[in-house]
Amino acid sequence: MNDRNILVIDDQEPHRDLIRDVLTASGYAVETAASGEEALERMQRGDISLMLTDQLMRGMSGIDLMRRVRAQKPELPVVIVTAHGTVDTAVNAMKAGATDYIQKPFTPEELLIVVRRVLERLDLVEEVQTLRRRIAEPYRFDRIVSQSPKMTEVFEVIRHLVDLDTTVLITGETGTGKELVAHAIHYNSNRRNQRFVRINCGALPETLLESELFGHERGAFSGATHARSGKFEYASGGTLLLDEIGDISPAMQLKLLRVLQEKEIQRVGGNETIRVDVRIMATTNRDLETAIAAKAFRSDLYYRLNVVRIQLPPLRERMEDVPLLAEHFLRVFGEKTGRALQGIDRGAMNALTEYPWPGNVRELANVIERAAVMAGGDRIMAVDLPVGTTPAHPNAAADRLDLDLPFKEGRQQVIAEYEKAYLVNCLRRYKGNIGQCAQHCGVDAKTFYRKMQEYDLDKHVFRRPDEPPAPN
Fold first, then answer.
1. Is the predicted pLDDT of residue 395 greater than 50, yes or no?
2. I want to staple 282 with a disulfide (CB 3.0 to 4.6 A). Which of 203, 242, 326, 379 is the partner?
3. Residue 396: pLDDT above 50?
């Protein structure tokens, strides 16, 4: 059975019933209406996937009905049924916004072909919309994790930009999330249903970058066997992100300046001027003002790009976000792998908040993912963190003590933390072999296994077939 609900409109009952019977026999859910007014009333209750209406009806015609439908629900497909030989009427119906048409008299097979074609097209449109929503989901404002006052200011700027076509320059150190901000602006803007195109300007040589941006004509250079559009054309109607704009050559800077001024491009090797409708965003981790002073970056291009500037702070300047981000990345890891950890141990979290994060948010995400992979239990412990992210000073253990606890409880907490870390390291070294672990620790296998159960450690987690054999 087809789950699409079709509304058939015809003021002639025999015609109406004939269409209904053909569609019902093919598994469609069908309702009928005897007039345009009745159809509009039924449409208001929702749950209609397709309208199939006769053109010539008493009162409201099929074309008039379609215009009313388009004004209220432009996404609802409408098929017009026209009389024999009225080609002009069919053409006018399509110009007026009909999704498709069918001429009388028609066979059941012809009717079903038209209906299937329209519904398949509707399925495709809905699938594209669903994919776009999935792509845009990570870039909703409420998915960007922060409680920092500096980031709050950034969010306010972004919210003011979403429905404007203003050029945006996003600056900040590597790993601060510049591309994430660009995505957030695009997917919350009125261009969200158009393409978001990114090109890394610093990763391509000048000749290749020019062709990638502007396209080329056939024969423009050796190997150009056919014409090809560039990123500006491909992104037309949407957004083009020029990543690492500070790394392009002076010659390319001049060509980009002309495009930003004229909103026109020329393909490499071509003479035709092509208009483009693109919102430009650019990112850089360079100090462009210093580059301008050193004659390495054009000031006029800088002013064209720097209409609105978003400066992203490094993670070390918003350390209050580290716990939030760490827990967020742990949830993302769990969703991606199906291995849901319970959280991050206090000692590990203290280590994360003491580390200066030179690689910024990107480094934190990588550290959490690695620690989640290496974790032997249901929480990330300090021992699971990579070497270098944990404090190395002599009082590191003392710094993690909870001095508000009674002495016995505090001592037991330190002992438990040490025991678990010791067990995890031992299991990791011997790839989960309990016999070898017990021999190394100087206890019997039963005692070692009992301790594993106490700390909820699973030997299978430490068996990694892609790693070299355990040492003897």
1. no
2. 242
3. no
Query: Facing residues of 33 across strands?
Result: 9
Q: Where are the domains of the chain?
A: 5-134, 140-313, 318-400, 403-472
Class of domain 318-400: mainly alpha
- Cis-peptide, bond into residue 105, ω within 30° of zero: yes
CATH of the structural domain 140-313, one choice from 3.40.50.10740, 3.30.428.10, 3.40.50.300, 3.40.50.2020: 3.40.50.300
Q: Are the beta carbons of 437 and 450 closer than 8 angstroms?
A: no
CATH topology of domain 5-134: Rossmann fold (3.40.50)
Q: What is the pLDDT of residue 11?
A: 92
% of the chain exceeding 70 in pLDDT: 89
For the stretch 238-285, pLDDT in tens is: 999 999 999 999 999 999 999 999 999 999 988 889 999 999 999 999
Closest CA to 196 of 249, 138, 268, 135: 135
**Residue 10 near residue 57 (C-beta atoms within 8 A):** yes
Check: CB of residue 178 under 8 Å from CB of residue 172.
Answer: yes
